[in-house]
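Annex B. Sample input.
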Amino acid sequence: MSAHPNLPSAQQGSSLIEVLVTLVILMLGMMGLVGLMVQGQRSQMESYQRVQALVVLQDMANRINVNHKAAGCYVTASYLGSGGTVPIACPASPVLTAEQSARALADLEEWQNLLLGSGEVAGGSNVGAMLGARGCVTVDATTGVYQVSVVWQGTGQTFAPPASIPCGSGLYGSETLRRAVSVPVQITSLS
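Annex B, continued. Sample output.
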């Protein structure tokens, strides 16, 4: 007769192998969640930068529209923002007053500061800028349409901006890291 008649012949409970397999599966799931969180933060940063760029872009388009007689003063030879410099003079024009010229140069300086992040300050530091923000204003000589562009460095590779937005081209290592937004500004009347 058996000493323990109520016990089944098979062992009950979990083996160490089963516990380890469960832990590995849980670990892989947690790693997937961490990757998802990182991607979410990257997307949030890209979205924040695009919103900031659109605000800065619209700011300059409005400045040109307000001071439309001095629109030629806003055209940048290179770019403003990270590594750029503000022009020190405006091209001479018979329809341009000294006040309009001074306003255009002040607008460009303020735009330079916005591109460098002065729109938001935290702890005494400018934090309201995109990574490597640069801005350009160009004019099409045949149509007279001004193009305001803001470019910055994205956090991951995507598609390169169109060739119609040359602002900051070649300054971000790879064109697939350069992000760009642009808006045309039509000056209807110079009177």
